[in-house]
Amino acid sequence: MPVRPLLFAALLATGLAAVSPAHAEEGIMVPAPKQDEPASQAATETAVLAGGCFWGVQGVFQHVDGVKNAVSGYAGGEKSTAVYETVGSGATGHAESVKITYDPKRISYGRILQIYFSVAHDPTQLNRQGPDSGTQYRSAVFPQNGEQAKIASAYIAQLDAAKIFHKPIATRIEPGKTFYPAEDYHQDFLTLHPHYPYIVFNDLPKVRNLRRLFPELYREKPVLVSEAKS
């Protein structure tokens, strides 16, 4: 099991760990995108998003109705460097990312992005997220086609123009990047380790925010990578 003891020790040293987990990550309901993908009859489509540690981003989308699978991994760099310890150096070009496979008849790409910007992470943080810092924790959208790139670009411009956040959105749009799945021990981490301090403080509040802000899209039982393999 991977550990982030230095990060949590830093929280303890600064007194931040004494803050209620419910206030560790604040969700905000952002408006739905004005531009979205056209209706599709495809069985599945995919989205690849980066928003800090992939444990929390994966955990959020595993609870979204219409999502068929959410896999933690790496995007932005080469296949040879898509290894947790190497990515952690911050020098590979990779970001910890999540590949989301969804049913476009039940949820759209735009709605996926709305959840991403509302509860999955703070899109105003540059090359960091919560206690994690480095380009591997950047906010990034890896569009799978030109239509997704247009939707994401227009949405960021829409939210910035509306001044939804206290700072400009730092999310990068990085087309043409390959996604590589992370090691098995990273998959389903939030569900398998709900009492792990990092998860309790940083990630479980995101799932609660999903349930509070998107009750119509929240499902109690997460869709797990381990179940998809069985």
Write out key terms for the chains shown.
8 helices; 230 residues; Peptide Methionine Sulfoxide Reductase, Chain A; two-stranded antiparallel ribbon
Tell me briefly what this model is.
The chain is an alpha+beta fold and 230 residues long. The protein has 8 helices and 8 strands.
The count of strands amounts to: 8
Share of β-strand residues: 15-25%
Q: Pairing-aware structural class of the strands and helices?
A: alpha+beta
Number of domains: 1
Shape verdict: globular
Q: Could you list the spans in which at least 5 consecutive residues all have pLDDT below 50?
A: 5-24
Classified in CATH, the superfamily is: Peptide methionine sulphoxide reductase MsrA
Q: Biggest sheet: strands side by side, in what order?
A: 7-6-1-3-2-8
Write a structural description:
The protein has 230 residues and is α+β, with helices and mostly antiparallel strands. It has one domain: Peptide Methionine Sulfoxide Reductase, Chain A. The protein is 33% helix and 16% strand. It has eight helices and eight strands, in the order H-E-H-E-H-E-H-E-E-E-H-E-E-H-H-H. The chain has helices at residues 5-14, 54-61, 84-87, 109-120, 146-161, 189-192, 197-213, 225-229; strands at 45-51, 67-75, 95-102, 128-129, 132-133, 139-141, 172-173, 179-181. A six-stranded mixed beta sheet has the order 7-6-1-3-2-8, with helices on one face. A hairpin with a 2-residue loop joins strand 4 (128-129) and strand 5. Helix 2 (54-61) packs across helix 4 (109-120), helix 2 runs parallel beside helix 7 (197-213) and helix 4 (109-120) packs across helix 7 (197-213). The radius of gyration is 16 Å and the shape is globular. Residues 5-24 have low confidence and may be disordered.
